[in-house]
């Protein structure tokens, strides 16, 4: 990859999460809490639908960056602050990921990328950055 310019936009990507995705993911972190996959249980806790694991949306964000870079080992630092839960209904939930290069060190071939994740009109990442090594 050539060295990107500051303000380079990453091509946005929309990922649809389904209840099946949430059930499959529940075993990864060892969090089988039914609020993450059962609409009925979620209603008892007041949300109107299941809530996606925050770590799942963070992991998809990391994959979004590595896909842009073309190398899964290029991420050196990754930090995300979650702000809004993703509610997954029977139809699923779309999360749109986008990003912009905020800083570049062309000598060390390192860039800092600011990530955004939205579910509907709401941001689910309050502040998210990835420091990446460019190839």
Topology:
Blueprint: E1 9-17, H1 19-26, H2 39-44, E2 50-51, H3 54-69, E3 75-82, E4 87-88, E5 93-105, E6 110-119, E7 122-123, E8 125-133
Antiparallel strand pairs: 1-5, 2-4, 3-8, 5-6, 6-7, 6-8
How would you describe this structure in keywords?
135 residues, alpha+beta, 6-stranded antiparallel sheet, two-stranded antiparallel sheet, 3 helices, 8 strands
Describe the structure.
This protein is α+β, with helices and mostly antiparallel strands and 135 residues long. Helix content is 22%, strand content 41%. It has helices spanning 19-26, 39-44, 54-69, and strands at residues 9-17, 50-51, 75-82, 87-88, 93-105, 110-119, 122-123, 125-133. Strands 1, 3, 5, 6, 7 and 8 form a six-stranded antiparallel sheet that branches. Strands 2-4 form a two-stranded antiparallel sheet. A hairpin with a 4-residue loop joins strand 5 (93-105) and strand 6.
* Residue fraction in strands: 35-45%
The biggest beta sheet reads: 6 strands, antiparallel
What is the CA-CA span between the terminal residues?
5 Å
Mean pLDDT: 88
Structural class: alpha+beta
What Rg is obtained from the alpha carbons, in whole angstroms? Answer: 16 Å
The number of helical segments is 3
The run of helices and strands is: EHHEHEEEEEE
Proportion of residues in helical segments: 10-25%
Q: What general form does the structure show?
A: elongated
Total beta-strand segments: 8
What is the chains' assembly state? single chain
Low-confidence stretches: none
């Amino acid at each position: 990859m050539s060295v990107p310019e500051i303000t380079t936009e990453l091509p946005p990507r929309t990922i649809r999460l389904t209840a099946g995705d949430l059930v499959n993911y529940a075993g990864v972190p060892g969090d089988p809490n039914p609020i993450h996959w059962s609409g009925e249980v979620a209603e008892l806790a007041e949300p109107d639908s299941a809530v996606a694991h925050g770590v799942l949306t963070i992991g998809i964000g990391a994959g979004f960056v590595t896909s842009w870079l073309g190398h899964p080992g290029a991420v050196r630092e990754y930090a995300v602050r979650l702000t809004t839960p993703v509610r997954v209904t029977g139809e699923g939930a779309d999360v749109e990921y986008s990003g912009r290069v905020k800083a570049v060190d062309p000598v060390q071939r390192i860039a800092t990328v600011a990530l955004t994740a939205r579910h509907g009109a709401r941001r689910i990442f309050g502040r998210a950055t990835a420091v990446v090594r460019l190839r």
